[in-house]
């Protein structure tokens, strides 16, 4: 019915239309914009101490389950300060044309053929929830999607549930016999989440100190170290450590690295850092097993020596991801950065030449999407404080909702 010339024209037209429309759609449509959290603080630092803490934990493998549960234990949930944990099991899409998202709370009364893949993970978290009634609420989900769009499932759920932090496992697993590298595309998923998440993000590197069944006991303290330099990410890590410090079997050691005769580039960040340090000291140093230390470092060599001296002192290390790259403390570290998603300090602790035996949680505070004129980059992400006037007061009773708009209008 169609001659050869007409068929050729139709085929060429289809190829040209596809070739032109695909890049145009990529330029005009950016899915990450819907995760932009302007005027909405989704951080641990700005979470009210008397409110429910909402976390989103990602599970790539069954081996991640005990790690997340043990991290939940040391997060010190109480009836007065409960934790609502949203757990999402992420699976690679195979043999389907469209991604699939399953809420297991809605599917509880009916059997789903896809629930069997996540059954052991769901049961583990449900048992933990039953054992900690009135302190922990767990909501379970399964997302079956290709690796290229898997981060959209995570970010969309975090936005809908208004979580304060997304916890994602590192793309490598440490076993007793050495390092077992998981699927490489998971590293790209983690980097996409860091770039687009509407709340804070924590990359959890388990070296075995969180996967044990008896990592938290009443016979000994679980030792946590916080490396604090400066900036929003370090404050977010300290805010999480402050929650853990309230656990009766947790010991927190805050190590602050100070550079003598150096002024902070942004005064408001320096004031925020001082406020967070004072709040931690006032709340926790009355307890003898919590420790605060200051270490003076002039250059990257002294900083590395201080961090190396802490390698075998803790079971878990918390630290911020982003720091000033032009700081004298990071000269030369750019050339040896094996895992940029962990930042300078996190990469130093997790790299192959490190002797660290502790687990590591690298924290990035919620960031805001703004345009940037730098060549080669059309988007730039900043912490929330970077976009606000420095004259705005900051204190324990100040929230962004104290404005003429009102909370309800901002939520809309």
Could you describe the 3D structure shown?
The C terminus is likely disordered. The protein has 2 domains: 153 residues, HUPs (Rossmann fold, 3-Layer(aba) Sandwich), CATH 3.40.50.620; 147 residues, 3-Layer(aba) Sandwich (Rossmann fold). It has 412 residues and is α/β, with parallel strands linked by helices. Helix 6 runs parallel beside helix 7. It contains 10 helices and 15 strands. Helix 6 links the parallel strand 9 and strand 10. This is Cation/H(+) antiporter like. InterPro entries: CHX17_2nd, CHX17_C, CPA2_transporter.
CATH class descriptor of the largest domain: Alpha Beta
Distance, first to last CA? 56 Å
Largest sheet: 11 strands, mixed
Overall pLDDT confidence: 79
Summed up, the helix count is 10
Low-confidence stretches: 369-412
CATH-level-4 superfamily name of the largest domain: HUPs
User: Which architecture name of the largest domain does CATH use?
Assistant: 3-Layer(aba) Sandwich
User: Structural class of the helix and strand makeup?
Assistant: alpha/beta
Percent strand equals 15-25%
Shape: globular
Q: Quick one: how many beta strands?
A: 15
Helix residue percentage: 25-40%
How are the strands of the largest sheet arranged?
3-4-2-1-5-8-13-12-9-10-11
Domain Cation/H(+) antiporter C-terminal: 223-366
Transmembrane segments: 6-29
Keywords: Ion transport, Membrane, Potassium, Potassium transport, Transmembrane, Transmembrane helix, Transport
InterPro entries: CHX17_2nd, CHX17_C, CPA2_transporter
């Amino acid at each position: 019915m169609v001659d050869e010339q007409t068929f050729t024209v139709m085929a060429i037209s289809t190829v040209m239309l596809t070739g032109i429309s695909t890049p145009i759609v990529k330029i005009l449509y950016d899915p990450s914009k819907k995760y932009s959290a302007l005027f909405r603080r989704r951080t641990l630092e700005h979470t009210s101490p008397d409110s429910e803490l909402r976390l989103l934990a990602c599970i790539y493998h069954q081996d991640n389950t005990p790690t997340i549960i043990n991290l939940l234990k040391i997060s010190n949930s109480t009836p007065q300060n409960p934790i609502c944990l949203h757990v999402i099991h992420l699976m690679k899409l195979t043999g389907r044309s469209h991604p699939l998202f399953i809420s297991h709370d809605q599917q509880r009364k009916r059997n789903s053929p896809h629930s069997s893949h996540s059954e052991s993970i769901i049961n583990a978290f449900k048992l933990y929830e039953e054992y900690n009634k009135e302190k922990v609420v767990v909501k379970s989900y399964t997302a079956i999607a290709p690796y290229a769009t898997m981060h959209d499932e995570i970010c969309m759920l975090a936005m809908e549930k208004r979580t304060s932090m997304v916890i994602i496992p590192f793309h490598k697993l440490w076993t007793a016999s050495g390092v077992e590298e998981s699927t490489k595309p998971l590293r790209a998923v983690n980097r996409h989440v860091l770039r687009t998440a509407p709340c804070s993000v924590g990359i959890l590197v388990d070296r075995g100190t969180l996967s044990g069944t008896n990592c938290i006991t009443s016979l000994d303290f679980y030792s946590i170290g916080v490396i604090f330099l400066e900036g929003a990410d370090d404050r977010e890590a300290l805010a999480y450590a402050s929650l853990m410090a309230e656990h009766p079997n947790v010991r927190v050691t805050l190590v602050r690295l100070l550079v003598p005769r150096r002024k902070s580039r942004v005064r408001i960040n320096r004031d925020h850092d001082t406020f967070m340090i004072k709040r931690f000291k006032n709340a926790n140093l009355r307890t003898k097993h919590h420790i605060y230390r200051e270490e003076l470092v002039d250059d990257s060599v002294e900083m590395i020596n201080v961090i190396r001296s802490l390698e075998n002192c803790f079971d878990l290390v918390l630290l911020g991801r982003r720091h000033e790259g032009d700081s004298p403390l990071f000269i030369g570290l750019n050339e040896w950065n094996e895992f940029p998603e962990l930042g300078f300090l996190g990469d130093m602790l997790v790299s192959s030449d490190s002797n660290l035996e502790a687990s590591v949680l690298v924290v990035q505070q919620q960031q805001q999407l703004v345009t940037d004129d730098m060549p080669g980059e059309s988007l730039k992400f900043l912490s929330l404080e970077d976009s606000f006037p420095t004259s705005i007061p900051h204190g324990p009773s100040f929230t962004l909702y104290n404005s003429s708009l009102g909370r309800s209008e901002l939520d809309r």
